[in-house]
Specification:
Blueprint: H1 4-10, H2 12-23, H3 27-34, E1 39-43, H4 46-63, E2 67-69, H5 72-76, E3 87-93, H6 99-110, E4 114-119, H7 126-130, E5 133-136, H8 149-164, H9 177-186, H10 191-198, E6 203-208, H11 213-227, E7 230-235, H12 236-239, E8 253-257, H13 264-276, E9 281-285, H14 287-293, E10 296-298, H15 308-326
Helix pairs in contact: 2-8, 2-9, 3-8, 4-8, 4-11, 8-15, 9-15, 10-15, 11-15
Length: 344
């Protein structure tokens, strides 16, 4: 049986292409709205918060703007007013209907920020209506509870946002993403070997650094949601500061890396250290060097580091869906979860 999650994973190249076609021509609107702002504040929860981590690293490393991940509770629970003059606040919600995110974006505007919404909910969604500018993704309806195509199209919107903020990147490289994602869906690598290695485990660590840290967080979340694993998403810098002690023969690691960039060598060194400690290491991306240091490996995208997260999550999504089925879990409707989460 083909799950809805698996069907929606396969829809990602078309969803990414449609979102690119809609949003790339709008970078000028972003530039105009952001004129006079210095900082970027992301407002999100869950999968959208993981996407925001990508936006944070991309904008800081390529656009030279300080960014922060906002705490919605400051607005909705503590009801504190802050001086947000000079801030560009970006609210992310796949549905555009998460009340906490909508309320926090309105709060940011009332505190002096200029506001952008990133949502798959369309221009009529509450989040889009609350923003000065809405960047609406075109993933289409997503019926499986674990987000797949809505997440990757959020990353596209964040890449477009970074371009609008003056990122030192080649916008034309974004056009390579749909094909790169399609190639990974067609041949992600040895999914079966990784499923075999994880099927009997209660927990694992998922780690990456820099631009791909977002991928580690998102994959860990997916494995929690759909496979009920105790999955910890960590930067490998944080992992080395103590939590590496939890990695052993019963707790494997998944390491995520782009095929280039300043953190690749450290990821390879970590893979060797973990294997020397007697634990299994599963790689996603990182090229031949990381694959050679791993117990088994999944492919990464043929994309530059700044776009690698748009592809790296795809083998992780396929792994999550396959592992859930191996464990006898329906990945389309994990227990205790709904498509739109409201927080008090």
């Amino acid at each position: 049986m083909t799950t809805t999650m698996r069907k929606e994973i396969a829809e990602q190249p078309a969803a990414i292409q449609a979102t690119l076609d809609a949003l790339l021509p709008r970078t000028g609107e972003i530039t105009a709205l952001a004129e006079g702002t210095r900082h970027v504040l992301f407002i999100a929860r869950g999968t959208s918060d993981n996407a925001a981590v990508y936006g944070r690293y991309l904008i800081e490393t390529r656009a030279g703007r300080l960014t922060a991940l906002g705490a919605p509770s400051v607005a909705t629970a503590y009801r504190r007013r802050l001086d947000l003059d000079g801030v560009l606040a970006v609210g992310l919600s796949q549905s555009g209907r998460t009340e906490e995110i909508v309320d926090t974006l309105r709060w940011a505007r009332d505190c002096g920020a200029r506001t952008i919404a990133i949502t798959n909910g369309g221009e009529s969604s509450p989040l889009a209506q609350a923003a000065d500018l809405a960047l609406c993704t075109l993933a289409g309806e997503e019926r499986a509870v674990p987000a797949t195509k809505t997440y990757t199209t959020q990353l596209v919107a964040l890449a477009v946002l970074a371009i609008g903020l003056g990122a030192d990147v080649d916008p034309g490289e974004l056009r390579r993403v749909p094909e790169a994602v399609a190639a990974l869906i067609e041949d992600p690598g040895d999914i079966g070997a990784v499923v075999d290695g994880l099927a009997g485990k209660a927990g694992l660590v998922v780690s990456g650094r820099g631009l791909v840290y977002s991928t580690a967080l998102e994959l860990a979340l997916k494995l929690k949601e759909a496979c009920y694993l105790h999955a910890i998403g960590l930067s490998y810098a944080d992992l080395l500061h103590g939590p590496i002690a939890v990695v052993d023969a019963d707790t494997p690691a998944i390491l995520v890396a782009a095929g280039e960039g300043p953190v690749l060598a450290g990821t390879v060194a970590l893979a060797r250290r973990v294997r020397d400690a007697g634990a299994s290491v599963y790689a996603i991306g990182g090229g031949e060097e990381l694959a050679g240091a791993a117990t088994a490996a999944l492919r990464g995208p043929e994309l530059p580091e700044w776009l690698a997260p748009l592809g790296l999550i795809v083998p992780g999504q396929l792994l999550t869906e396959a592992l859930a089925r191996r464990l006898g879990i329906d990945p389309d409707a994990p227990r205790g979860l709904r498509k739109v989460t409201q927080t008090g």
